[in-house]
Amino acid sequence: MAAENTCADVMIPDPVTLPEGATVGEAIATLLRTRFHHVPVVDGYGRFLALFGGSTVAKAILPKALTMEGGLGEAAFLRETLDDMRERLGALSARPALDFADRDVPTVAPDAPLAKGLQLLHRSRTLVIVVDAERRLKGVIAYAGLLARLAG
């Protein structure tokens, strides 16, 4: 009988990260360079703090009336241009990336059952962060890595 697999068996170890002090501009440059959709933010001890991603940037550059709770439900009438969005993004580029990162991200231990990690991946639809007991980042579980592992 085969041993039960764990999250460590399918995680991508030592993923690309952003340091705690990274700016939005630096975070975006990392996303563009790596072509990742999300990058974990870690402190100086390698502890996971938050997840910065493209959806974070999109929310930050959209008009507030579209992102606030109870705001506009329809955006078709707005006449936004790329220049409008570039201007808002430029105003954010020197701000801390951590201010715009998602802190409510599922985490799992490396020795957690694989089914637990996959359940969290299904629910989050982004990444599952694999951390040890001190919250030090050990890896991530992503759909691409999981598919590569399953395919062979």
Set out the fold topology.
Layout: E1 12-13, E2 18-19, H1 24-34, E3 38-42, E4 48-53, H2 54-61, H3 64-67, H4 82-92, E5 107-108, H5 114-124, E6 127-131, E7 137-142, H6 143-151
Parallel strand pairs: 2-3, 5-6
Antiparallel strand pairs: 1-7, 3-4, 6-7
Please characterize this protein's 3D structure.
The structure is a single chain. With 152 residues, this protein is α/β, with parallel strands linked by helices. It has one domain (7-151): Roll (CBS-domain), CATH 3.10.580. The chain is built from six helices and seven strands; from the N terminus they run E-E-H-E-E-H-H-H-E-H-E-E-H. It has helices spanning 24-34, 54-61, 64-67, 82-92, 114-124, 143-151, and strands spanning 12-13, 18-19, 38-42, 48-53, 107-108, 127-131, 137-142. The protein is elongated.
Radius of gyration: 18 Å
Structural class of the secondary structure composition? alpha/beta
Q: CATH homologous superfamily, by name?
A: CBS-domain
CATH secondary-structure class: Alpha Beta
Q: Strand order of the main beta sheet, please? A: 1-7-6-5
- The CATH architecture comes to Roll
Main sheet: strands, sense, barrel = 4 strands, mixed
Q: What's the shape? A: elongated
What count of structural domains? 1
Count of individual helical segments: 6
Please provide a brief summary of the model.
By secondary structure, this protein is α/β, with parallel strands linked by helices. It has a single domain (7-151), classed as Roll (CBS-domain). The chain contains six helices and seven strands, in the order ββαββαααβαββα.
